[in-house]
Amino acid sequence: MTDRPDITIAAIHGKTPRIHDSAFIAPGCRIIGDVEIGPDVSIWYNCVIRADVNFIRIGARTNIQDGTVIHCDSPDPGRPEGYPTLIGEDVLVGHMAMIHGCTIEDRGFVGLGAIVMSGAHIESDAMLAAGAMLTGGKRMAAKQLWAGRPATFLRDLPEKALAGMQIGVAHYVENGRAHKAALAEAALGSAQG
Q1: Which residues lie across from 93 on neighbouring strands?
Q2: Are residues 148 and 165 in contact, defined by beta-carbon separation less than 8 angstroms?
Q3: pLDDT in tens, 32-91
């Protein structure tokens, strides 16, 4: 457990979350079990990352925005390895997304309120639109935009959109650092006051 009462970081089944020192974990987050969070990741307010039945990996500079839920899927007789959740580097995950037992490669994008289900796969530089639902077993090819419920291919992404996503990644790294510093300063002020 963390010593911060506004964040839960807890072990389960002998597995403890491993969080890089440079990561920003916002108040209200719950991070449980076999979770690994890389350098300069930002996990925003009130996210739940629960790896109690499989593992979750989140790569460097990825951001998981407010209210998102990330889980994984248990092993079963038809799939003994189950579905871990693998999120690469420089990934943008919008507010209130649901990510479950899937793979999101480097520089992938999951829009606000989108759902990615077990066995789904988002390749590098692909974008799942806000509110979309990528159903189990579907695979989005690199640099594609998918939308809808269930999500289907809309078009290939232009270079301008890909560059914009990387600007967003850099913004969230800096914004995470700013929030981390502001919260540390506020805690120090409370302790001294």
Answers
A1: 64, 110
A2: no
A3: 999 999 999 999 999 999 999 999 999 999 999 999 999 999 998 889 999 999 999 999
Q: Residue 131 half-sphere exposure, CB side, CA atoms within 13 Å?
A: 2
Expressed in angstroms, the distance from the first to the final Cα of the chain is 26
Cα 93 to chain centroid distance, Å, stands at: 6
Instruction: Give one DSSP letter per residue of 17-75, joined into a string.
Output: -EE-TT-EE-TT-EEEEEEEE-TT-EE-TT-EEEEEEEEEEE-TT-EE-TT-EEE-B--
Indicate the pTM of the whole model: 0.94
Q: What is the DSSP letter of 112?
A: T
Inter-residue long-range contacts of 30-39, CB under 8 Å, 24+ positions, other chains counted: 31/7, 32/8, 38/62, 38/89
Q: Which domains does the chain have, with CATH numbers?
A: 8-192 (2.160.10.10)
